[in-house]
Design a protein that fits this description.
Layout (H helix, E strand, L loop, with lengths): L14 E6 L2 E6 L7 H9 L7 H9 L4 E4 L3 H7 L6 E2 L5 H5 L17 E4 L5 H11 L6 E2 L3 H7 L7
Parallel strand pairs: 3-4, 3-5, 5-6
Antiparallel strand pairs: 1-2
């Protein structure tokens, strides 16, 4: 019998068991957990990210919806992208799901090309991946986020 054929009496693969207060809990095995850099690399490999100029041109041509998920304090400090929808990160999936009861009027179908924008292009990658899970297969994010948009000299209002 090989090691693979040995019956396994422990927790499912990738998990370890701990006892807490007399009960057994299954916890993720830290050896199999991803760090944030690995997670970002993995989710970003699932779609093509866009640069600031490309995002600007796509929105201007009516081919994409810019979605600003930055915190209110950052929007107040740095300004807004004209024409971008402002959607708090914790509401994003509800607002862009075309089948959702809380969707925005712009969330017309799963074919909408949503370009998610955060401050520096990290949180937006995770948000775009979440939109993919909802079936928004054209969702993407802006490389470098709002800061890259601003550095490219693209329009910003205060």
């Amino acid at each position: 019998m090989s090691g693979a054929d040995v019956p396994h009496d422990g927790p499912p693969h990738g998990r370890r068991e701990e006892r807490r207060g007399g009960r057994r809990e299954q916890r993720p095995d830290d050896r199999l957990a991803l760090g944030i850099d690995e997670l970002l690399e993995r989710v970003r490999s699932g779609y093509a990210r866009v640069e600031a100029r490309e995002a600007y041109e796509a929105a201007r041509a009516g081919e994409a919806l810019l979605v600003d998920i930055r915190y209110a304090a950052l929007r107040e400090r740095d300004g807004l992208i004209p024409g971008a929808l402002v959607v708090e990160r914790n509401e994003l999936e509800w607002r862009l799901d075309p089948r959702g009861s809380h969707r925005l009027p712009e969330a017309t179908s799963h074919d909408v090309r949503a370009i998610v924008i955060c401050n520096e292009g990290y949180a937006s990658s995770l948000a775009a991946a979440s939109l993919h899970q909802l079936g928004l297969h054209r969702a993407t994010d802006l490389v470098g986020g709002f800061q890259a948009w601003k550095a490219a000299g693209l329009p910003v209002t205060s």
